[in-house]
Amino acid sequence: MTLQQQIRSNRFRSGIVVVGFVLLLLLLAGLVGLALDYSLGAVALGVAIVYGVFALVRSRSLVARMTGARELGEADLKPLHRLVENVSIGAGLPVTPEVRIVDDQAPNAFAAGLRPKSSYIGVTTGLLRTMPKRELEAVLAHEVSHIRNRDTYLMTMAVVFAGVIALIADIGFRSLAYGGRSRRGGALVVILAVVGFILAPYAALLLRLSLSRRREFLADAGAAEILNDPEAMALALRRLELDATTVRYSDASTAHLWVESPTDRVDSEQRGVLALSGLFNTHPPLPDRIEALEEAGGFRLSEGLPAGEPFAAELGLV
Amino acid sequence: MLWLWIVLAAVALLGIVLALGYNRLVRLRNEADTGWANIDVQLQRRADLIPNLVEAVRGYAAHERAVFDEVTKARAALQHASAPGAAAEANEGLTAALGRLFAVAEAYPELQASENFLQLQEDLTDTEDKISAARRYYNSTVMHLNTAIQSVPWLLIAKPFGFRAKEFFSAQGDTAPPQVSFSQAT
């Protein structure tokens, strides 16, 4: 798939996601209306739409707040800016994305923003402390390809819509539970509504997750192409794999944004044998991603990692 | 009557295919043009750094005239080169000349320690990194454009509409995107 096809397919999927969520939203509002009261259904719909629009407009700073990413001044960490600049030039992005720093020991990075022009890349201090320049560049290239492929756009839409669905289902659920007297539908409608309210957030979650996993392979491939160095990306992933710390700040709602899933390790430890875990992962397993890169690049990583001075040393951040 | 409809449908279909193909070629050509503009900006930036650098070195090593001449000439050659292949050639020439300039600079510890010189050296290295990034992008867009133009069916519309294959930005005139990275001239 060429890049342009990828971008177009992402736009198309974004359209499908929007239509799917709108339908789901109408269905839920309808259920609220049928089971309780039409005006309540209309109010819930209105609240959800206002919330959704607000979240989309504010998504940039919302993500920054959720991840704890802070802005950098012009003069701070210049070598890092230069690295991002180089990677964006290599990707043919018209504008260099801003860089933000997340104070966290776990090595990770993410990209956010609706449009390439207003996008930014967040990197953790842990990433700067673990990765040598070559691998850091690969991670940045991975994030830049998310921006270039419009993945960030699609995922932001999906997150916001999932939030809206959860909100409206919540309204419906609470009204059913506490507003007993205003209930107008028959028993069947009420049961239907309860099932709908319970399942809707999961449907939204599944739709969102199904979008993010294949994208990681594509962004890995994009990074390899941007740098003309698939091995660097594979090495970076291997280094992430060997690193056991996970991002402290992150919760499930921002999991899909990161280069390595921040919640997987915690979740799989907690869930244990739960078979569903594969379905609810935002990222494909790291060994699979490394293997895909090895196959595409025609090389094999040796067991150990090359020792390299972490980029933080160059930034004076030790 | 039926055959008329069939002919009309075939013509309409052909028109759509032509339009799509034409748009695709235009898009690819624009991407390659943007890619070239990116390289051009960085080459210009590199050329702009040279006079200051020469001045900085001249302040400590005024008698090394031959090296300064060589660098100045290489810079002029780069500014006059317009085709990608020629520009790449001239850029390599400048790299070689700068290599000699930095070799000369090695002999002057005060120069090596001067803030100005270090800053210029850093900017130059950064520009070289950017040129190589811009080159990777440009060469990949050229590869897509050339592949499209040379393959059926776009081959048939490329010629009449004036789409031509573009040159890669590479010094030896080879056709594959080069894997070499710029050696740091220090």
Characteristic key phrases:
heterodimer; A: 318 residues; mainly alpha; four-stranded mixed beta sheet; 4 strands; 5% strand; B: mainly alpha; rod-shaped
Can you give a write-up of this model?
The complex is a heterodimer of chains A (318) and B (186). Chain A is 66% helix and 5% strand. In chain A, α1 (3-35) runs parallel beside α7, α1 runs antiparallel to α8 (187-227) and α9 packs antiparallel against α12 (286-297). Chain A is built from 13 helices and 4 strands. By secondary structure, chain A is mainly alpha-helical. In chain A, strands 1-2-4-3 form a 4-stranded mixed sheet, with helices on both faces. In chain A, β3 (109-112) and β4 form a beta hairpin. Chain B has helices spanning 2-58, 65-80, 84-105, 109-113, 115-150, 154-158. Chain B has 6 helices and no strands. Mean pLDDT of chain B is 86; it is low at 173-186. Chain B starts with a helix and ends in a 28-residue tail after the last helix. By secondary structure, chain B is mainly α. The chains are: A mainly alpha (318), B mainly alpha (186).
How are the elements arranged and paired?
The complex is a heterodimer of chains A (318) and B (186).
Chain A: H1 3-35, H2 38-57, H3 59-67, E1 69-71, H4 78-91, E2 98-102, E3 109-112, E4 120-124, H5 125-130, H6 133-148, H7 151-178, H8 187-227, H9 230-242, H10 264-271, H11 277-280, H12 286-297, H13 311-315
Parallel strand pairs in A: 2-4
Antiparallel strand pairs in A: 1-2, 3-4
Helix pairs in contact in A: 1-2, 1-7, 1-8, 2-7, 4-6, 6-8, 6-9, 7-8, 8-9, 8-12, 9-12
Chain B: H1 2-58, H2 65-80, H3 84-105, H4 109-113, H5 115-150, H6 154-158
Helix pairs in contact in B: 1-2, 1-3, 1-5, 2-3
